[in-house]
Design brief:
heterodimer; A: 430 residues; alpha+beta; Cytochrome-c3 Hydrogenase, chain B; 4-stranded mixed sheet; 3-stranded antiparallel sheet; 44% helix; 18% strand; disordered C terminus; B: 169 residues; alpha/beta; Rossmann fold; 5 helices; 6 strands; 30% helix; globular
Chain lengths: 430, 169
């Protein structure tokens, strides 16, 4: 294997957004892998300057059609951190419930429509639906349960309009949440089936070595709050993020690469969450993970599809628990007065840690914004993994290697552009 | 079974310039369509469309297209009985494209009504809000064509392009 090879895909299918990759191989050795992504947060950082601190949740929600609640929550956490506000337990419960809806929507979409076809030899969900319509229907049923939860608590299923700094515009009554129970119970059954289904796929022997980073909280499987922790001892508040993490611009890439200062590449997302917080999953989710053959940690990106399925069970289970224990807050939102300074917030988007930082003046005008989405944080880990996977499979044809590279990228559920819909139009022979 | 709903759906991203063409068309139509016509905008992933397609007698989708034709060119496809061409709407850069969603609905037996797709060729899909002037003009043309479509008989036959920059297939 002495020739020079380039494995590339100019338009990645079945990932969120637009992206491309190339892997350079020379003399049987992988020289470098590059994942090229478009990063809308950079545009939004500029758009936010000069706007009111109260507008951040609604503006940043527009960054992504799949994980708007993550953007809203991290921005609210940052603004409330800055203004020294603590929301009530009932409000936090409602935020966590809304976030569960987003996890259900996002994980169901990725597992069924984008990722599973890789393991089953289909080019996409449409082809899978031809042979196994009931399987795809199950994925859609799950997604619909997430949509209903988002619609009821957030006001609509995409880009919720009911959230604000300090709480909600309107808090639903306990009675209003009741119609969610049955669909969520059915979704939990579908999620259990999803774990058993994905556990039966064939997986190569593969693990990644890098540091795993996720939020952790003593009281629950961290989603909407927590400290930033790692499996190698990192334990910091969101306010300390920039002291420990840096964004680096590499000449060969248009994207900023996140690194842990003096520690290097790290990985966030389902594998990190599961490995750090396994003990806080619900008993049902833990039992299903055990049944699926997962240990208490998982470093195999291919098996991330099982971990997402376990998190689907957890999100349904947790949503039902939250609805059961919900008490309508006395007021839907607490008053938040602006204060000059910097605020930091983080939460666990379905794809991993999402960090926001804002500098605001005394009137509440945003002077500076920094948004670090999970896919940017994982970019180096994805590129390292591409190098490793290609190096181990050099005997494959270019076509098969390209397919394997695409699957390797999809293992990370990258939200590459967080939202473009334009269609490629190539008309020939007209 | 489809009910009597007629729905216009604009698809796109308001922060990617010409990509918002479909949303702009929907915004224009919202105040101008008959009361029985529902106008929706979809900025997120399009599987929500499955429910729309399953429950409508007529669905008209409007989206921006890239890489062929001149900016502002409008193409109209009837997707009721056959897929929109693979190389047009099948290869969306988003996770699950418009063409795939229509085909998934068809495969699962959820495509019960008539489906028309309008594609507006865009030029600039970079981050930002302003549309290219020719795309802005096409938004008006497409909205007028869709209004005409909604006022005509609900037949599956295709109308030929009613505007110099509009073609059908």
């Amino acid at each position: 294997m002495s020739e020079r090879r380039t494995i590339r895909t100019d338009y990645l299918a079945r990932v969120e957004g637009e992206g491309s990759f190339s892997v350079q191989i020379d003399g049987g050795r992988v020289e470098q892998a590059e994942l090229r992504i478009f990063e809308p947060p950079r545009f939004f950082e500029a758009l936010l300057r000069g706007r009111s601190f109260t507008e951040a949740p609604d503006i940043t929600a527009r960054i992504c059609g799949i994980c708007p609640v993550a953007y809203q929550t991290s921005s609210m956490n940052a603004m409330e951190n800055l203004c020294g506000v603590e929301v009530s337990e009932a409000t936090r419960t409602l935020r966590r419930l809304l976030y569960c809806g987003e996890w259900i929507e996002s994980h169901a979409l990725h597992i069924y429509m984008l990722h599973a076809p890789d393991f089953l030899g289909y080019s996409g969900a449409v082809e899978l639906a031809r042979d196994a319509p009931q399987i795809v229907e199950r994925g859609l049923q799950l997604k619909k349960a997430g949509n209903e939860l988002m619609r009821l608590v957030g006001g609509r299923e995409i880009h919720p309009i009911n959230v604000r700094v300090g709480g909600f515009y309107r808090a639903p009554s306990k009675q209003e949440l009741a119609p969610l129970v049955q669909p969520l119970e059915r979704a939990r059954e579908a999620a259990i089936e999803t774990v058993r289904w994905t556990a039966g796929f064939d997986f190569p022997q593969h693990e990644v070595e890098c540091e795993l980073v996720a939020l952790s909280h003593p009281d629950d499987y961290a989603i909407e709050r927590g400290r930033i922790c790692s499996d190698r001892g990192l334990d910091i508040s969101a306010s300390e993020y920039t002291e420990h993490f840096e964004e680096e611009h590499l000449e060969r890439s248009t994207a900023l690469h996140s690194r842990l200062r003096e520690r290097g590449t790290y990985l966030c997302g389902p594998l990190a969450r599961y490995s750090l917080n396994h003990a806080q999953l619900s008993p049902l989710a833990r039992e299903l993970a055990r049944e699926a053959g997962l240990g208490e940690t998982c470093r195999d990106p291919f098996r991330s599809i099982i971990v997402r399925s376990v998190e689907l069970v957890y999100a349904c289970d947790e949503a039902l628990r939250l609805i059961d224990s919900y008490e309508e807050p006395d007021v839907p939102a607490v008053e938040v007065r602006p204060r000059a300074g910097s605020g930091h917030g983080a939460s666990e988007a379905p794809r991993g840690l999402l960090y926001h930082r804002y500098r605001v003046d005394a009137d509440g005008m945003i002077l500076e914004a920094q948004i670090v989405p999970p896919t940017s944080q994982n970019q180096q880990a994805i590129e390292d993994d591409l190098c490793g996977v290609v190096q181990q499979n050099l005997e494959l044809s270019d076509e098969r290697l390209q397919g394997l590279c695409e699957q390797t990228i999809r293992n990370y559920d990258p939200c590459i552009s967080c939202a473009t819909h334009f269609l490629r139009l190539e008309v020939t022979g007209r | 079974m489809s009910d009597q709903r007629r729905v216009v759906v604009g698809v796109g991203n308001r922060f990617r310039r010409d990509d918002s063409a479909g949303l702009e068309v929907a915004d224009l139509l919202r105040e101008r369509v008959a009361q029985d016509v529902e106008v929706l905008t979809l900025e997120g992933e399009p599987t929500v469309l499955l429910d729309v397609l399953a429950g409508a007698e007529l669905t008209i989708l409007v989206d921006a297209v890239a890489t062929a034709g001149s900016p502002g060119e409008i193409r109209r496809f009837d997707a009721t009985d056959e897929p929109v061409p693979n190389n047009v709407f099948g290869a969306s850069t988003h996770a699950f494209g418009l063409g795939e969603t229509i085909e998934l609905a068809r495969t699962l037996g959820k495509l019960n009504g008539r489906v028309l797709v309008y594609g507006i060729t865009g030029e600039d899909f970079s981050a930002g809000e302003a549309l290219n002037a020719s795309v802005e003009a096409a938004v008006q043309t497409a909205a007028a064509a869709i209004l005409q479509e909604l006022s005509g008989p609900a037949s599956r036959s295709e109308r030929k392009g009613s505007h110099p920059c509009m073609s059908t297939r």
